[in-house]
Protein 1
Amino acid sequence: MPTSPWRSADTFPRRLSLRTVNGKTQLVQQPVGELKALRGTETDVPATTVTNTTTPLGVHGSTLELKADLTPGTADRFGLDVRTGAGQRTRIGYDTTTGEVYLDRTASGATDFDPTFSSTEHAPLALGGKPLRLHVLVDASSVAVYAENARGEQVVLTDQIFPDPSSTGVDLFADNGTAKLSSLKAWRFASIWK
């Protein structure tokens, strides 16, 4: 990992709890409620459908909280790209062919410092044609993804990224078909140091 201007990283604090899903007890993670105090003005993005393309959503920031509901349609893969710009993106997607949520940092910015850093993380989450709910926290050098299906099953993915400071956009994408963003709420985070 690059060690300048900092060393290592912490993720956003989380609240852990147990929830019964389909008759089984599941560990559930959520960002702590105190993070809401850092939210700036809410941006609501209208429902948007994409087919075989990537569409900018008009949301920008190096520190963001995003809450999105997406429906797969016919797409093989669909989701959100964060920290976009300068040819960079960190892709948060769902692969309908494998039934997995994924976090792809292969184009997330600086990745050449170690051949194993440029990677994609996967976790199984069955949608059954129902919507995917994403709660995403983006910091200067990290992305935390809380993904949930309609039954309340959840997976959480977190990775460190090193994008260019100018890469601040958020895009919607769909590969090999159509997907729909039903709703997106976005907030920029204020600094905890000021």
Protein 2
Amino acid sequence: MASLPNPSLSSELAENRTRIAALRGALAERVVVADGAMGTMLQAQDPTLEDFENLEGCNEILNITRPDVVRSVHEAYFEVGVDCVETNTFGANHSALGEYDIPERVYELSEAGARIAREVADEFTASTGQQRWVLGSMGPGTKLPTLGHAPYTTLRDAYQQNAEGMIAGGADALIVETTQDLLQTKAAVLGARRAMDATGLVLPLVVSVTVETTGTMLLGSEIGAALTALEPLGIDMIGLNCATGPAEMSEHLRYLARHSRVPLSCMPNAGLPVLGRDGAHYPLTAPELASAQETFVREYGLSLIGGCCGTTPEHLRQVVERVRGLSPTARDPRPEPGAASLYQTVPFRQDTAYMAIGERTNANGSKKFREAML
């Protein structure tokens, strides 16, 4: 006999879809504000080695051992008025957990992190009447597949577990963030897509790349290469986070505003870190961050903003106040069809000369190649 559908599961799925649709609507109509730094706030509560299950620094373990600590961070951000918080799952991937010899716990820690954030979001939605959402954080890990540190398929399959866990825990969107290697980014995006197919729930998928002070991603990719490579994967939003403050992000956001077909996001650090006797200090004040984000919204039409390293609830409180009531400024993007290498994008433009497409052509190093050219 065929099994009967579970009414509670059907109801939960319907609620999830309603929330997700509301988030999509909000991103289209107004500026949505996310939270700020997570790791520093967790560490500020001085968790013990026992809390980390003797895996010191593995913040995702706290989702299991100290959910109260993780909850308190989400609460601090919701209390200042942000629309959504990111899950404590930045390191819930194969390479990061593999360094602690617990890669098999990707799903468990991802689900727990999303469930904690979901519970807090629902409590604030009920108490304030303002809908709050959960962004499922998918971090870069510690292995770069382009450099051969880990197999692409291994990373992709683990990202699928990461995403499936967060979807099960109640995430409303997935954010592939702090990406440094375009192949790692693709692994996360395709893992997330596979998770959506497996769960039957389609969430907004945000990709946030990290551009260093050098003006490129860690492996040398320009922002144009990132856009050309990632936009065709069907992502819902692209933006920047981490590595620098807003001042260093402006030109890269300008490029995205001119060329990106999809909406934009920005979550900068509180400036560039300044090393002192007590470690790194982030100098950008809350009013300065709020002013920068308002400027970005008005000039580049950002839909999702927030903060990264060094930003606090006070930073985000002032951001919320500055952008309240603002809608993303209308953009008139002029996408340029093209192809990208790891490093840069090349538009499909042909002037009076022929277009040459090729890789390294060392006739001296290869007899076969020299004969083929001749």
Protein 3
Amino acid sequence: MTTTTPDIDVIRARTLAGIAHGFLGRRGGVSTGLHAGLNVGPGSEDDPAAVAENRRRALQVILPGTTLLTPYQVHSADAVVVTAAFADHDRPHADALVTNRPGLALGILTADCAPVLLADRTAGVVGAAHAGWKGAIAGVTDSTIAAMETLGADRARIVAAIGPCIARTAYEVDAAFQRRFTDADPANERFFVDSRAGHHRFDLEAYVTHRLAAAGIGRVEALGLDTYADDSRFYSYRRSTHRSEPGYGRQIAIIGMMD
């Protein structure tokens, strides 16, 4: 389900109905030029003032009046329990945040990697994970679920949604990449299809869905939105690379609970 508020593209998952959340694209921001739109990446080459305003706007349409927290993402499997707001310079080096504290909005930045939002409504616990291929195979979603359980969540009740990410049609990888996955589990071959000689196309969304289901999450919604294919709606690292552009923007996924 997609709504626009105002001019900002907010994509919501049915699985997370009743939980304040949203997967945002690039529409509705103040950045210009290469980063035109709602670029929320402080690590991009964009004007810091524009990034700050975009982050303010993103928070306003999802959880106004709360504090937006994002980790310093490092493509790891690390998930951090958050009990209080932290300063930007104290951002944990991790790829997932979880909390049970109202007033905190958890955000994950992506530009082809899979954003995953999770919630246990009964326990009042939410999580946000950044699942690039490195974090996905290392188990970032498993770590997120385990961290949520330390706050009283039950994986039998946790629901999850996977937001916009690069689709298999655009995600060509070499044979060594495929071997990392098939060496970990021969059954992972199903997430690849043959491409040109010595290359394959990888289905990141399907793999992350599989990892969540294998961890015991019974309701997983994959939104099936391709960041690479729609340059008017999403930022994409790989698309920018293929175009030899000097930089790229980041979109954000946010989840949290109101006071």
